[in-house]
Design a protein that fits this description.
Blueprint (H helix, E strand, L loop, with lengths): L4 H12 L2 H14 L3 H6 L5 H14 L8 H10 L1 H9 L11 H16 L6 H11 L12 H11 L18 H20 L3 H14 L10 H14 L2
Helix pairs in contact: 1-11, 1-12, 2-4, 4-5, 7-8, 7-10, 9-12
Length: 236
Amino acid sequence: MPLDIERVKEEVKNYNDSKELVLCDNLIRRVFSINLIRRILCIKESEREIWMRVIILNALWECNLSNQVENVASRLWGKWREIQNIIKNLQNISLNHENQERVCDSAEKLLKIIFGDGPNILVFASKFCHWIAPKVFPIIDRKNVRPAIYQHQVEENVEENERIVENPNALTMIDHCINDYQKLIRFYAHELQAFSRSDIDDLICYDYDKQPPNYQHTNTILRVLDKYFWKRGQQL
């Protein structure tokens, strides 16, 4: 069964009732956005901006980088042009069933850059990927979204080899993390297939309307559904 739109709306409203959560979203969005004037003038991002993105995302969204912040930020800055080239190939699309494998291929390239030779930082990687390409990359965490999506997949009798991993501690190698994230991408592509364009637009508008005044911003459908699963996971 497809996701119940009214239930999604209920949990999105519950999420947006927290000014703290919405303000965190706004702060993260600010450090990831590049304004129109800078784009016109072709002003490139600086090393300082990349570091700010890593530090603020890690702090506000509990990415648990701990002592990896410096290594990750330095690696991203060193590979920033390569990252931009990957994202450019996705800038005119939104995740759907037809382009999911294209998104999966790009995700593999990005995760290999973000991970480097370091430990499992899939939570950070998915959140970073989302904020640099919010129309195509979904978010995963350990405490709320993962268990909620896994439970949904079990209830929908999704084949075991197509489900995301229930216990993230099992993701001990980068190949495991990439495979798991690609399953997440395919999961969202499948769920979105059940929505009409008007359903998607309705959810995006609802999310905007329920955000606190002066904090409102239009999110992608992936971010809207992430709010739903985050709230659902709190109840498990």
